[in-house]
Amino acid sequence: MATFMKRRLLIVDGHSMIFQSANLAKMHARNGAAAREEVIRRLNGFQDSTDWMVAVVFDGKGGRASDASEPHGIHVFYSASGQTADSVIERLAAKYAQELEVMVATDDHLERTTVSSLGASAMSIVQFCEEIDAANRDLAETLRRLKNRRS
Fold this sequence. Notes:
Layout: E1 8-13, H1 14-20, H2 22-30, H3 32-49, E2 52-58, E3 66-68, E4 75-78, H4 85-96, E5 101-105, H5 109-117, E6 121-123, H6 125-150
Parallel strand pairs: 1-2, 1-5, 2-4, 5-6
Antiparallel strand pairs: 3-4
Helix pairs in contact: 1-2, 2-3, 3-6
């Protein structure tokens, strides 16, 4: 009898990720959009090399939350005016925790507790960055093996 795993959704607090990295924080001080784009680039790479679907949430400006994403890319959410990224993260965790395995990456301790109470798992951004590094190492090793087969 085959066992089926739940699909997996990773929700990342985008600004936690930016401010955990000295390079991204410096970039954000000069150009916030460039720092957000770099986070999105890294998360696309993570999604491409793992079995996680990825969503990132940023505190946004404007009248409403948006879901701007490339086809097959990660989902990018910006909180609406008067709304926090945390509230969007909580809404997503509550909505998907029953049907998917949901993991939230944030440095906000209260947020990790809240999403855990909603049925999601949580990790710090430091832990998540270690996951990204491991996925990158696995991908590099796979590419090395494929290259050696062709040689």
